[in-house]
TrEMBL record:
Organism, as annotated: Brevibacterium pityocampae
Keyword Iron applies: yes
InterPro entries in alphabetical order: AAA_16 (IPR041664), Cyt_c-like_dom (IPR009056), P-loop_NTPase (IPR027417)
Residue ranges of every copy of the Cytochrome c domain listed in the record: 181-347
Record protein name field: ATP-binding protein
Alphabetical keyword list: ATP-binding, Heme, Iron, Metal-binding, Nucleotide-binding
Residues annotated as signal peptide: none
GO MF term list: ATP binding
Entries under Gene3D superfamilies matching the protein: P-loop containing nucleotide triphosphate hydrolases
Superkingdom per UniProt: Bacteria
Sequence intervals crossing the membrane: none
Amino acid sequence: MSLGLERARGRYREAMDPIRNPYAPGAGQRPPELAGRDTELDMFQVVLERIARGRPERSLVLTGLRGVGKTVLLNSLRSSAVRSRWGTGKIEARPDSELRRPLSAALHQAVRELGIRDEDSRNHVLGILKAFAQRSAGADAKLRDKWQPGIDAPAVTGRADSGDIEIDLVELFTDIAGLAQDGGKGVAIFIDEMQDVQPADVSALCAACHEISQLGLPFVVVGAGLPHLPAVLSASKSYSERLFHYRRIDRLDREQADRALRTPALDEGADFTAEALAALYEATDGYPYFVQAYGKAAWDVAPKSPITAEDITVAAPAAQNELAVGFFGSRYERATPAEREYMKGLADLEVREGVVPDPAGVATKDLAEHLGRKPQSLSPARDGLIKKGLVFSAERGRIAFTVPHFGRYLRSQPEL
């Protein structure tokens, strides 16, 4: 046996070491190979460069089901902005929280990242930001009750502190963008779970982005959310359809899924057989989270490289358990008994309507009939599931799961 072949085999044995497993099925964790997102990354780089040259551009909204990698892509876009020396900040919206406090913290970070040398100008804008943040406690709140955002500058009154979030955001974004422009830079704010932003705050965000766009200032908002996010924005401001670039983030096609699996494996001196890749795509449907979960499980059980279809069969129970506990089960546990009944009915009905579930979901009237209930009686369960991010309504009168394969999971768990 040649020394080169011995080294190759030794490298393959090492590659199967679980410690060197390259796959990352964690929530929001960047996979070793960000496959299938080059278009969005390139488009955002164009947006940054156009704005830097004073050209008009729109902010960006990413939409898609859970598990398609929206958060990962959002973080990657933020990294692009950082490399372009923009000031950046990120928040995760919550349905029970107003935007003022988390947005203040994100904007504070963005201003710090700008590194503006003009101390007077920087402190003036920080003072406006501080006054904006402190309005979260109300105009009549005592000093001890006001939130202290950690801004080392005295509050500046009379700007962005009216208490009307729409007026305040327009003024605040304008001032911060002006500061960035004077320094030859820009600001990008990234909002995850954007569909959970409260209606008044959504309206204010749209109005502020509209004003910034009209003034040609270097400020962009990049949002990520569930498929009904465009409808949320449109309901707030009719012009929101023209205010953002909308990009639907979907599952990977076969070539992209193979790349997501093979590139990190090859970097570790390992590979997959063609049959193994075919089996993995059939099991995962190209959903990035599933690709990572199955890739990790396959790596851990494979005795050597290349990983085979037989290895995938052996690994499937471990991958399914990972998804059942960390992806499906944790979400199911958050639902009330009434909400679980609603989801089980939805799971049953999406199969009755076709072998491949309709992406728009099922008709709510059909679901009510299937459950033997009046449509109105199901409204509390439906609304609760929407607030928890488990279902969404892409169009009036229809409902669908936000999580891919969730219906399949529920049908496979008769004990639930």
